[in-house]
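From the methods appendix. Each design record in this collection lists the tokenized structure first, followed by the designed amino acid sequence. Records were kept in a plain field format so they could be parsed without special tools. The example shown here is representative of the layout used throughout.

RECORD:
FOLD TOKENS (179 positions):
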């Protein structure tokens, strides 16, 4: 069975009107949502998009490069003890993203790029679904979600973008069969 660990924040639990959207941060639900599932042989780890979006003066001690890596290493070590195959996803572009919480900052982009570099180059994962590469485009300001692949918000994939991302996951899953 494949478990996906995605869709909320890894390190930060938003308060106020967004708390019900994201629910518990992943560090509080990882055991229940992933480790306690019977017969799990593969985990898709797709977290970081929302954490990066909440980086600001209030959260910078929680949402940091060091905390993200330490937390992912701890989770990955738990999965490896259970012989679970791990696919990690890079964090998709945010520039031009329509955000209700304010503009996506250069500091956020630098964190996203640093985390992606680490995800691609560390040796913790069995495969990397490079979704940034799948959906990105570039202009003079940096990387953004390619036109025609998002729902109009430069953050969430539309049907075409979702299909391309699914193909990237499928490629990783095929690798798991041969390993």
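DESIGN:
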């Amino acid at each position: 069975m494949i478990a996906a660990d995605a869709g909320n924040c890894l390190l930060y639990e938003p308060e106020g009107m967004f708390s019900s959207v994201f629910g518990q941060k992943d560090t509080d639900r990882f055991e229940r949502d992933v480790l306690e599932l019977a017969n799990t042989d593969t985990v898709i780890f797709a977290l970081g998009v929302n954490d990066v979006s909440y980086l600001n003066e209030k959260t910078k001690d929680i949402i940091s490069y060091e905390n993200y890596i330490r937390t992912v290493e701890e989770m990955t070590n738990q999965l490896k003890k259970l012989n679970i195959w791990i696919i990690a996803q890079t964090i998709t572009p945010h520039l031009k993203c329509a955000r209700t919480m304010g503009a996506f900052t250069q500091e956020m982009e630098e964190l996203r790029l640093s985390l992606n570099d680490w995800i691609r180059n560390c040796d913790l994962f069995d495969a990397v679904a490079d979704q940034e590469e799948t959906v990105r485009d570039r202009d003079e300001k940096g990387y953004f979600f390619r036109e025609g692949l998002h729902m109009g918000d430069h953050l969430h994939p539309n049907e075409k973008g979702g299909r391309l991302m699914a193909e990237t996951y499928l490629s990783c899953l095929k690798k798991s069969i041969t390993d």
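APPENDIX NOTE: The radius of gyration is 16 Å.
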